[in-house]
């Protein structure tokens, strides 16, 4: 296979024998959406059957994206490369199984009227597609679909209000669906032809059950260094996002062991020391001898970036950390050619459930009649364990590991006048397939939440500002080694990432390793309360809510008023309502 074209983003249309008028209408809007910033990276491919507009990866000339990940790959093979068009999907799937780390791929064989879209198994990169007026529209970022005339998907709105993100394959754009992580989708001019799961990278053949822990640690360390070297750059600066947590600290160790001298650790801090991880990160970098930078932005700086951040998102999300990530990349983009993010190890190691979570999970499975008890009437506050168990039994079993406090189904019914139904969602499908609490918790977070939140916030923040982000923990060899580890080296006695803990203990002093990890929590009040509720008054005013007609203005106004009077329990719900209406106000779902 040819190397392909490495893109920050792309968007296109496909149809056999496109009319000039169809092409010109799409071209005008696609070029507008793609050249608003960083037009020096802009490209166009044009044929009788397709039009593709996008921006290239500025690292393309120095790295192979098949090895490093962090890119959307575009393939336009000629007739000599494809002996038989009917074999396109199988041929491409064989090739794509060797792609490393985070990627999405688009291949067009217009000779045989086929277009294939595929996405990495972690879902770090994305692709979306759907038909509009008889034309197949495809894109790596939903931001490119503005002004094309798509309507709003009301099922997606209900999911957004409830979960605080839009779970794939849903999108906010009616008729556009997401390619699922680890999936390939084959289209022709008229319809979706086939969906297939991508064959995973071949597992390491070694049986690791009888390998001593000391040897496992040596092998893991070696693979970690190998991944760091593959995901780095030879020229220019690389920024490592470092929190006070285990994963990013391990990447700092990998930087030291790999001898990478062009890396600087970057920590995003806050004036509130209870949620600031700056000093924890400083201790790690000081011990390892890695350059360190602590960045703190003021409330006014975050407020001034709000609309830019929302505009950079293909669809609204509830991950508040998108604000500091976007601000940091914007401030550092001219200085750093590449960024690393520490997301990706949870899916390999697994995420153990707490004792209370596990007990509640098994009770939901084995004694469903308990759901009939009026748990909401039971007194709380006497015992953490009892409170946690009551909360689990009172809630939906399928949503046990959804952590954000979005709008309930009953509240959404009142707000929108329509009762939502989440039973057909991928989240509910996962619950039916899971056999243990750890499997359910891991799959909820890593297959549903991470692709549409943890990865999206970093990738979109970077790509919208012409920067590149990579995920060393998604390296194929490292991932498959980890998944092949004995269970007691992945988790034990409800403690997670046993081998990573051993690696930290080997390279960092005990006082650093033993310190409890704080939560990286963006102070939501910066946005919600800032300048006397300025953004709430602007985007959640009675006139704005009535204009978009998604929620009942009177009912929504009551919740907004209650929050402004001090009810902090409504933070998550007001946040997503604010982001949704900001996105609607500054975006353009209609056609220009």
Largest sheet: 11 strands, mixed
In whole angstroms, the N-to-C terminal distance is 39 Å
Name the poorly predicted regions: none
Name the structural class. alpha/beta
What's the architecture of the largest domain, going by CATH? 3-Layer(aba) Sandwich
The CATH homologous superfamily of the largest domain is termed: HUPs
**Count of distinct strands:** 18
CATH top-level class of the largest domain? Alpha Beta
The helix content is 40-55%
What is the overall pLDDT average? 88
Strand percent estimate: 15-25%
Number of domains: 3
Shape: globular
CATH topology of the largest domain: Rossmann fold
Number of helices: 25
Whole-number radius of gyration? 24 Å
Description:
This protein has 592 residues and is of the alpha/beta class. It contains 25 helices and 18 strands. A hairpin with a 2-residue loop joins β17 and β18 (495-496). It starts with a strand and ends in a 6-residue tail after the last helix. The relative contact order is 0.13. The model has no long low-confidence stretch (mean pLDDT 88).
In short:
By secondary structure, the protein is α/β, with parallel strands linked by helices.
